[in-house]
């Protein structure tokens, strides 16, 4: 387990609607961070594309509020930073961690965590960024029989009970370290570490968007964070999609 990063605050709440929503409220009230906001339980946990995140007591719900030192156009790369940090948390307790583009962390092919970035700004610069992480430490939803990535928890996969306090320290330390790498060295070293854990690299997948489904082979992630998928008609570069395994 790492050490708590220097200069980073923490706010621990019993229950909140969403730690990401609270991050926005705190910024609007004058908070600039860096500040981790955690809650024992969320009544309105958020996931990508307006979905909800199941929020049982015993799991980790945490959001880092900060002001990124990079343009808004590249700040989305912090999703890779956060997924790497969650993967390292899993690996610290002996789990086989994997990452799934663009924002999921898996254990042995099962979904165990999700990342959600939110922020706002103008003129190409972000005033604030929130990195929300939901990590199933002890509980997970009942699996849908048709789910490609059934949910799981760190406890279910390793038999180890990890407290939210220990998990947060590990997560915060890893996010600080990889965030510093991203801001000082660029995306290349982050991408390399992410690719080393990428699930289904070199295998067939489907990238589903609102008006199109693109089947092909997961070939790479480029230096902008875009997914590169090889199709019969050539390579496609995708910046947003839901990924399903063929």
The gist of it:
The protein has 246 residues and is of the alpha+beta class. It has helices spanning 19-28, 72-75, 78-92, 154-158, 164-185, 187-195, and strands at residues 9-16, 35-42, 60-66, 97-100, 104-107, 110-122, 125-135, 204-208, 213-221, 227-231, 234-238, 242-245. The protein is built from 6 helices and 12 strands.
DSSP strand count? 12
Net shape:
globular
Pattern of helices and strands: EHEEHHEEEEHHHEEEEE
CATH homologous superfamily placement of the largest domain: Bira Bifunctional Protein, Domain 2
CATH class of the largest domain: Alpha Beta
Query: What structural class do the secondary elements suggest?
Result: alpha+beta
The percent range for helix content is: 25-40%
How many discrete domains?
A: 2
Strand content is 25-35%
Average pLDDT over all residues: 92
Instruction: Report strand order across the widest sheet.
Output: 1-2-3-7-6-5-4
Q: Secondary-structure map with pairings?
A:
Blueprint: E1 9-16, H1 19-28, E2 35-42, E3 60-66, H2 72-75, H3 78-92, E4 97-100, E5 104-107, E6 110-122, E7 125-135, H4 154-158, H5 164-185, H6 187-195, E8 204-208, E9 213-221, E10 227-231, E11 234-238, E12 242-245
Parallel strand pairs: 1-2
Antiparallel strand pairs: 2-3, 3-7, 4-5, 5-6, 6-7, 8-9, 8-12, 9-10, 10-11
Helix pairs in contact: 3-5, 3-6, 5-6
Description:
- The protein has 2 domains: 9-195, Bira Bifunctional Protein, Domain 2 (BirA Bifunctional Protein, domain 2), CATH 3.30.930; 204-245, SH3 type barrels.
- 26% of the residues lie in helices and 34% in strands.
- The chain has 6 helices and 12 strands.
- Strand 9 (213-221) and strand 10 (227-231) form a beta hairpin.
- Helix 3 (78-92) crosses helix 5.
């Amino acid at each position: 387990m790492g050490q708590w990063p220097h200069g980073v605050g923490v706010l621990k709440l019993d229950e909140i609607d969403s730690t990401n929503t609270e991050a926005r409220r705190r910024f609007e009230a004058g908070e600039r961070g860096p500040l981790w906001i955690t809650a024992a339980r969320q009544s309105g946990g958020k996931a990508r594309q307006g979905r909800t995140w199941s929020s049982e007591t015993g799991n980790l719900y945490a959001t880092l509020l900060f002001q990124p030192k990079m343009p808004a156009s590249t700040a989305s790369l912090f999703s890779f930073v956060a997924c790497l940090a969650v993967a390292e948390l899993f690996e610290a307790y002996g789990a086989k961690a994997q990452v799934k583009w663009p924002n999921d962390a898996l254990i042995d092919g099962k979904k165990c965590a999700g990342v959600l970035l939110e922020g706002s700004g103008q003129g190409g610069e972000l005033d604030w960024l929130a990195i929300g992480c939901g990590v199933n430490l002890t509980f997970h939803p009942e699996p849908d029989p048709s789910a490609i990535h059934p949910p799981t928890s760190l406890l279910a996969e390793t038999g180890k009970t990890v407290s939210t306090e220990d998990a947060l320290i590990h997560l915060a330390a890893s996010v600080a370290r990889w965030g510093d790498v991203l801001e000082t060295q660029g995306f290349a070293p982050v991408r390399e570490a992410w690719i080393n854990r990428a699930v289904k690299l070199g295998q067939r997948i489907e990238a589903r968007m609102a008006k199109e489904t693109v089947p092909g082979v997961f070939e790479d992630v480029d230096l902008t964070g875009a997914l590169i998928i090889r199709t019969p008609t050539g390579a496609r570069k995708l910046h947003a999609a839901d990924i399903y395994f063929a």
